[in-house]
DNA sequence: CTCCTTTTAGACAGGTCTGTCTAGTGCCTC
DNA sequence: GAGGCACTAGACAGACCTGTCTAAAAGGAG
């Protein structure tokens, strides 16, 4: 009952995270993953019910790491406006890592088979969390229209992600942060 | 040598446009397309060299229609700032149509097999065109930093697309346009 | 009417992909 | 040392998917 995890499971998740993110959930088959993980095919089906569950675990891991990263950047900050800006700092850090290819959830959902697929469900869950987080910061900051402020911040965030991914524009996050700063300092507060 | 097109080819393109956009290039097989088009499988391979060419033709059509839509919204306008804002009006029109599911190029590229795939090539072509268009308007408007203005407009545009798609947020385009207006009226000019 | 292009229906081949199954191997614990 | 857990290697089944092929029909143009 210890928290010790089997190495096969971890190696599978590592390989899935790398390959699914870099090349797409649909493009990468389980044979590629078990080969990269150095694991027998049986181990995949022993640890996961199937590819779908592996995909779900991959997205869960991505979400958890994103949550942790934002947490790390907002921890210690008391000003909610600073927290909103720190979300962009967290993004800048993610973008700076090699192999950035946009939002894992958005990419996975783009190739999903339907609105009930694990990819679509994971996307909705992630977006729900993210929307709520930004809205809670905006509310905490005492803006007259917190939902409107949150919407603008989200729009800039998504724009930065898309622009980085589509145009390989490395400065997009900084620009978005700058624009967010403008929005946050000029929006009316209670 | 007339411009008359074979109905089979057109019906194939119609079906491909609908299905590929709604469900993804990878998810939809040629059997689905020929069935929806009411056409024999042989006709697909008679009119196209294979699925890749059909995908390329689908994306070409999307690009052409987007170009025409923006052209329609900017035609008659003389003020380049108004032209930049008209790009958002064109987007608003596209978003209002039922079944909007984000950028066809970005979605296709997300499930592409590699950087040399027809999807990735089409995306780069489209982004090149779009970047150039926005930059040319910004230059025409006489901004001190046309590239910076273009970058901000693109970021807002992409953010609006992503926000509409990911959050089913119908007001995102209007918000993005508003923010663009702010950027365009406050940015320094020569 | 005749030629040539386009289209049809469907069988078929060859590939890939997920998932199952078997038989056996370490390894840890009791 | 016995039993259960995690894992291995690989064959195999079954589904799906692209693309080919055949034999024939429709249709317009000269």
From TrEMBL, chains A, B:
Swiss-Prot/TrEMBL keywords: DNA-binding, Transcription, Transcription regulation
Superkingdom classification of source: Bacteria
Ranges where the HTH tetR-type domain occurs: 6-66
Start-end of DNA-binding region: 29-48
Pfam families per record: TetR_N
Gene3D superfamilies in alphabetical order: Tetracycline Repressor, domain 2
Molecular function per GO: DNA binding
Protein name per Swiss-Prot or TrEMBL: Transcriptional regulator, TetR family
